């Protein structure tokens, strides 16, 4: 009972702070991009900046993190549950595609984690949120981490072309498993495909060795459906559903495209809990 009261109070504080801000929501909507608003909201988890909640629609906030209750009440309860002073947020990458903003973040969030967050905006306010989180891991066999690498967008004029390439790659290679077509998407040579998955080395050779090792251990990675592909210039995010080692999972794969080929990859695989453990009924995807 006390926990419920605390969560309600936290939400009330967040909402009241938004209402009492000296700068109106309309003014903030006009002066900040959606990308800046999403970044401010995430940073507020660490800083406690209560003004950032003004970027969330208090009457319509759909939550797809299945461990968090729906709406602003769920967001407030989550913040209340964090040990005081423990949260750290270091956003490494942020991208905007129409009404969507997606970020790639180094977190201390109930422990060291790496996360992708996706926000949908309507009329300048956040109305929906998705994410994929995983534990922070040591560098992979090529010495790359889950977060390092380029952060600057290039080829902004090729966004739709790059999204189409990644959508084709996901369908052809990951869903259908037609590995004979890999050359259409990735060039040979370790330097031509930089890998940030914590268990896989650079290049097609690294990917092949990892798949062989998984096969030896009887571990299958199956992509059953690609739900959405979003991008900004050279960076493209694919969100898919499938299984890993027999467990129902959500795949978030971020690719960097250069000269019409995929040249770099970051990813997070998160198990999807059984429905009896969900704290909202919105599902993990719902695009």
Physical arrangement of strands within the biggest beta sheet: 1-5-4-3-2
Overall number of strands: 10
- End-to-end span in angstroms? 35 Å
Task: Look at the helices and sheets and give the structural class.
Answer: alpha+beta
pLDDT under 50 segments (min length 5)? 1-23
- Helical region count? 6
Number of domains: 2
Look at the structure and give the CATH class of the largest domain. Alpha Beta
Supply Rg: 20 Å
Q: What integer is the average pLDDT?
A: 91
Main sheet, how many strands, which sense, barrel?
Answer: 5 strands, mixed
The helix/strand series, from N terminus to C terminus, equals: HHHEHEEEEHEHEEEE
Binned strand content: 25-35%
Any idea of the CATH topology of the largest domain?
Nuclear Transport Factor 2, Chain: A
Q: Helix proportion of residues, in percent?
A: 25-40%
How would you sum up the global shape?
globular
User: In the CATH hierarchy, what is the architecture of the largest domain at level 2?
Assistant: Roll
